[in-house]
Amino acid sequence: MFSSRKLPRSDFFAILFSLGGVTVLAWVYLFRMAGAMAPGMAAMGVRPWDAGHFLMMFLMWAVMMVGMMLPSVLPSVLIYQMIARKSAAEAMPAAPTACFVAGYLAMWVLFSLLATFLQWGLDRAALLSPAMVAKSPALGAGLLMAAGAYQWLPFKNRCLQHCRSPVHYLADHWHSGAVGAVRMGLSHGAYCIGCCWVLMGLLFAGGVMNLLWIAAITLFVLSEKLLPWGVVGGRALGLLMIAAGGFILYNGA
């Protein structure tokens, strides 16, 4: 586990407040958007997917991904800054930490674009309610069971290990320069998406703008990546998801 004592306090608190500030702003936006959307949710359900509506949904997904995923990358960012600080002391300055963070967030913005297209497709197929929740119990159950099963796949575990071991990740994937830092951020974001993309599909099961559901998934991601028992706990919750999906499927049939 990374120790903040390896960084000057100024660096540690600058990163902590920067990432924390962006995360808080993202959640404030989500709260405001959820409040604004609630009264007109029925009307939004029949609103055509023109360019303006698509852009609004894409922005919603992008801000949501920032709010959900930025806290979990904190250890990697701190370690990158530690390496950059050491490199500067040895007259081999590394690219600013912001380049690494920008690459990481860019990957999640790309994921947000794909999620928006998926929402558009589900809406076109009349599978989503005006509240952006799966209409069909079978679809909701399928999303839960898929997310639960994914927790046990070797591919998921490989991606998760990269997220849980930022020191090894940076050591194995280090590239110099600003382009290299962005490249590392993109690669780290790709592993993170590989770890979490099926979990994000659960937003369609509980409601894309259900803030409690969003918070629950965020806490799940954080615990899985940062806590010592994250892997075991994630697999245990995966079994519960499979059981819950099976229960919904059985009772909804």
Would you write up a description of this structure?
The protein is 78% helix and 0% strand. By secondary structure, the chain is mainly alpha-helical. It has one domain. The mean pLDDT is 90.
What brief labels describe this structure?
single chain, 253 residues, 12 helices, 78% helix, mainly alpha
Distance between the termini: 46 Å
- Report the structural category: mainly alpha
- Count of helical segments? 12
Total strands: the figure is 0
The helical percent reads over 70%
Structural domains: how many: 1
The biggest sheet, with number of strands, parallel, antiparallel or mixed sense and barrel status, is: none
Global shape: globular
Unreliably modeled segments = none
Q: What percentage of the residues does DSSP assign to strands (E)?
A: under 5%
* Cα gyration radius (Å): 19 Å
SSE order: HHHHHHHHHHHH
For the residues shown, what is the average pLDDT?
90
Task: Describe how the helices and strands are arranged.
Blueprint lengths: L8 H29 L3 H5 L5 H19 L4 H16 L7 H28 L12 H14 L3 H11 L1 H8 L3 H25 L1 H4 L4 H16 L3 H23 L1
Helix pairs in contact: 1-3, 1-4, 3-5, 3-11, 5-9, 6-12, 7-9, 11-12
In summary, what is this structure?
With 253 residues, the chain is an all-alpha fold. It has helices at 9-37, 41-45, 51-69, 74-89, 97-124, 137-150, 154-164, 166-173, 177-201, 203-206, 211-226, 230-252. The mean pLDDT is 90.
